[in-house]
Design brief:
This protein is mainly alpha-helical. The protein has helices spanning 3-17, 23-32, 38-50, 54-67, 72-91. The protein is globular and about 40 Å long.
Length: 92
């Protein structure tokens, strides 16, 4: 890992460890993070440093998508809900 990636990963781990996620969810994130593209880790760090509650929201969103298990109808409904929530957040 390059120094920038190492710093990003350390910052991401600190955000994960400081979150209110379950230990299992924290371990899952910590295990997957080294394999995520640097840009994804950077975005995660930027978003979660701005709003610490973002870690919980991101994990819940990912869990919903994983629970859909590839069911396109469920994934479509999740995407529509994500869009509504984003539009509502931008309107405020």
């Amino acid at each position: 890992m390059n120094p920038d990636r190492t710093d990003l990963t350390a910052r991401a781990f600190a955000l994960i460890d400081g979150s209110k996620l379950s230990d299992a969810d924290k371990e899952l994130l910590r295990g997957r993070l080294p394999y995520a593209p640097t840009m994804v880790v950077q975005l995660f760090v930027e978003v979660c440093e701005e709003d610490p509650f973002s870690v919980d929201a991101l994990v819940m969103n990912l869990k919903k998508k994983l629970d859909a298990q590839g069911n396109l109808q469920k994934l479509h409904e999740i995407a529509k809900q994500d869009k509504r929530e984003l539009e509502a957040a931008l309107a405020n």
